Amino acid sequence: RHIMGSYHQGAKRLWRTSLWLPLTFLMVAGLQSLQAEQNFTAIHSILAITNNDYPYSNTAIAKASASSFKLLNLDSAHTLEAQLSLSLPANKALAEAKIKQHIATIGEAQFNQQLRAAYEPMIAAMRYGIDRYPAVIFDGGKAVVYGVTDLRAALNHYAHWLAAQQGGAVDE
Questions:
Q1: Distance, CA of 166 to CA of 172 (rounded, Å)
Q2: What is the CB neighbour count within 10 angstroms for residue 54?
Q3: 114, 121 Cβ separation under 8 angstroms
Q4: What is the pLDDT of residues 76-90, one digit of tens each?
């Protein structure tokens, strides 16, 4: 895997936490050709991982440039935990009962889906060995651009890298 892009000082190290649930989620990337009008070399998948502090721009360009685009937020698990613990009583037994009631209200399948979605960013980061963010992962880990929140710029980095690998040049 090739790591591209300059690591700017704003990029944060990926925080690690122990997963308390046995999640078996795997990211699935689709395969399709790039639209002909784009200046980028064919891109199969783009996975962008960040947190609330570093939002991505130009997501529409990324969506149009790859057959599969996914944006993951590392703050998702914290947000879900905060929602679940909102207004919980201090008494452990009462708190457990309230959470069980919440699960019963939305349904176990829906709750499990929320848990998988909340922890998906951390699982994807571990799967690809991402140790800082923001990170844009191209084509299932073929290359990673770190520290760039403008997805157009990340696409340009990747296109130039691909062209160099293939001995060609990319027009901007």
A1: 17
A2: 18
A3: no
A4: 999 999 888 888 899
